[in-house]
Amino acid sequence: MNIVQNNKTWCVIIPTYNNAKTLKRVVDGVLNYTNHIFIVNDGSTDETADILENYKQLYILNVPQNKGKGNALQIGFKKALSLNYDYALTIDSDGQHYPTDIPVFLEELNATTEPILLIGSRNMTHESVPKKSSFGNRFSNFWFQIETGIKLTDTQSGYRLYPLKHFPKRFFTNKFEFEIEVIVRTAWKNISIKNVPIQVLYDPNERISHFRPFRDFTRISILNTVLVSITLLYIKPRNILLKFKKKSFKTFLKEDILQTNASNEVKALSLALGVFIGIVPVWGFQTFLSIFLAAIFKLNKTISFVGSNISIPPFIPFIVIASLKVGSFFVGESGEILIDFDNISFHSIKNHLLQYIVGSTILATFMAVLLGLICYVTLNFYKRKTAA
């Protein structure tokens, strides 16, 4: 089979660690399609080295000590990149993947001119699939969608086609969790990620799993926590701002707010949530909270984010003064803002802080309700006008 597909060169990377029972079958199967193969022996202690002696025509990359699948893949990627390959197809050496599915990836690659990352989608409902694997895949799919907005049926399969020249410059993980990091961070670079159907074989007599349930699941959970935080604090706001910059305000308002599939009630509640978060004293976390809570309550994240920007610098002095003024009716002298900068003490700071917190919370509630109602009435008016 030609190693050039749609003007893109491709190779195969096979990371292996103590899979001597199945390695030869996998390599021989891949050889039916290409001899551009990189085998990364990740410190195997079984007969792997003896088996690889028969494949000296291939690229054999030996790692003296086992360092994890992620590290092995990165070694393979770097070598393939140094030889100017555009894509690398990775296949596990434990026998669960069928080399006969290689054309499935190449057909999909031929169908697009844009960079793409393909992940083999296994039938995880098959009776041979271990329940822990099925659960782990659903768990991974859920967090991947939260982190990227992309819905996939399989995010854990190691049978993948990677766009080598569109990776992040460096990675932070080197074990099983690497395969999560690489697809999430590639998606953040706006590279298309798609599933393709593949076969799968789980033979308990042959397959050796190196997954350590407690340790690796903990590492994956920590990684997902970091990725979700980055998503809410940076990626989501960045995407909204980029979308806003690419469009005129009128187009942004029309396409991303007026013409979204959300109901007018949801849009109004989304704005109200954003305004509330933007006024209450949660400095530095407005963006995170507005998007996070909108996701939790299934509201419009874009509208909530826009609403939270009520606290942009030009408005801050007015919000602070209004908050202190409102708070003064409930804390301290009624209707007066008592700030004596010449005699500041811990007691006075404490009093004014309480005054500000109380006032900003009340002001945030009032403004959220007011602007939410105005938004709801305006949207209904727009809807009736466009329907007429």
From TrEMBL:
Transmembrane region(s): 217-235, 271-297, 309-332, 352-379
InterPro entries in UniProt: DUF2062 (IPR018639), Glyco_trans_2-like (IPR001173), Nucleotide-diphossugar_trans (IPR029044)
GO aspect biological process, one term: protein N-linked glycosylation
Domain Glycosyltransferase 2-like: 11-149
Annotated SUPFAM superfamilies: Nucleotide-diphospho-sugar transferases
Pfam families: DUF2062 (PF09835), Glycos_transf_2 (PF00535)
Domain DUF2062, residue spans: 256-386
Annotated keywords: Membrane, Transmembrane, Transmembrane helix
PANTHER family per UniProt: DOLICHYL-PHOSPHATE BETA-GLUCOSYLTRANSFERASE (PTHR10859:SF91), GLYCOSYL TRANSFERASE (PTHR10859)
Protein known as: DUF2062 domain-containing protein
Species per Swiss-Prot/TrEMBL record: Paenimyroides viscosum
